[in-house]
Amino acid sequence: xLNPSKSDCIAILSAASRVSDADPLLPLDYTNLGLSRNxxxxxxxxxxxxxxxxxxxxxxxxxxxxxxxxxxxxRLDQLANx
Length: 82
Prior knowledge:
It is built from four helices and three strands; from the N terminus they run H-E-H-H-E-E-H. It is an alpha+beta fold. The longest helix is centred in the middle third of the chain and has 13 residues, at 37-49. Helices cover 50% and strands 12% of the residues. The protein has a single domain (6-81), classed as Arc Repressor Mutant, subunit A (Orthogonal Bundle), CATH 1.10.10.10. 28% of the residues are buried.
């Protein structure tokens, strides 16, 4: 699997950081995130495999994520500040 870029991961994690646990899943849209479709899918797969979201779905409509898990918050902080 390819490693996503730091900025691609930050874009997805930042969008998910605005979601609360009570909110419905956030559908990821590559055009709103400013990413290519391939970059978004690669970064989303990378982050879900590492447990960065409390919940997520991959379906025909695309990828949807819930709020950040502790791992996701730590990874966002590490990427943004490290």
